[in-house]
Design brief:
By secondary structure, this protein is of the alpha/beta class. It contains 7 helices and 11 strands. The strands form 2 sheets. Strands 1, 2, 3, 4, 5 and 6 form a 6-stranded mixed sheet that branches. Strand 7 and strand 8 (about 210) form a beta hairpin. Helix 2 runs antiparallel to helix 3 (about 45-55). The relative contact order is 0.11.
Length: about 280
């Protein structure tokens, strides 16, 4: 929901002075039309109102998401408004609309828009049963509430993306293991489990494994010194696992945290790192 976040950060979130639907839409359209990146002669208000006559954009739960499409190049522009009294919008649930989020969408950005609007709808659905938006007292309160909504949604997206990345990296690692050195000869050990972990390295101390899997901690920390292998930041076998690097973060006092994946191997007796 990057474009809604941009609107909040760049001053395009306003209190709507009108409870009339058409006037409120015109007000937000004027904010978008004032943007210098907009294509010349673009009638946002006319396009939004024309589309609204064909299809009501009230999505329920106090929200509406009108938009217009454009053949011009460029990026999506968003403007949003809060109505303290609520707008008789004709939404599908017949309830007043308190938040209107309007989008200007170039055709080349259609897929980006669809992804954002679906994320927004999921976030709104998730907030059902939370704070009663009809009782908000100020624009600042409304803005902070939407910021929390967007932030939570983005955190969920990042978590989901990280999970997909771990899954992909695991599949790629399995493929490497099967193909061996590229000669077509399978290796003796195939991965049967994938465990995310972090490894803390400090001067004068043995590496510390941070994981939710107690077996991984015990096997890796008891199988000998990993530091020479860790310093190369390349895959290595250790304690019956293949360790894959995802990233390293450096801290004060020469402390490092390596973000890794551990692939548990079948049929391996590796007790020392192969580097």
């Amino acid at each position: 929901m990057k474009n809604l976040l941009n609107a909040l950060q760049e001053g395009r979130f306003v209190e709507l002075p009108e409870t009339n639907k058409e006037k409120a839409l015109n007000y937000l359209a004027n904010l978008i039309e004032a943007m210098p990146d907009l294509g010349p002669g673009t009638d946002v208000a006319g396009a939004v109102l024309s589309r609204e006559q064909q299809f009501n954009t009230g999505i329920g739960m106090g929200w509406a998401c009108p938009h217009m499409r454009s053949q011009h190049e460029g990026g999506i522009i968003c403007a949003a408004g809060w109505s303290p009294a609520g707008i008789n919008y004709g939404a599908c649930d017949h309830k007043p609309v308190y938040f209107v989020v309007m989008y200007y969408v170039p055709d080349c950005q259609k897929n980006v828009y669809l992804k954002e609007i679906s994320s927004l709808a999921r976030a709104i659905q998730k907030q059902q049963g939370g704070q009663d938006i009809s009782k908000m007292q100020s624009l600042a309160e409304a803005r902070n509430w939407i910021l929390d909504l967007v932030s939570n949604a983005l955190e969920t997206q990042v978590t989901d993306a990280k999970a997909r990345m771990i899954h992909l990296e695991a599949k790629q690692a399995a493929a490497v293991q099967v193909s061996g050195t590229g000669t077509g000869t399978p290796t003796e050990s195939l991965p049967c489990a994938v465990i995310p972990l972090s490894i803390l390295v400090m001067p004068g101390a043995r590496p510390v494994v941070l994981s939710q899997d107690s077996e991984v901690i015990a096997k890796l920390e008891s199988a000998g010194d990993m530091e020479p292998a860790l310093s190369k930041q390349a895959p290595f076998d250790h304690g019956g696992y293949k360790i894959l690097f995802r990233g390293t973060t450096a801290y004060q006092s020469r402390r490092l945290i390596h973000d890794c994946l551990a692939l548990k191997l079948n049929g391996t007796g590796a007790d020392k790192p192969k580097i």
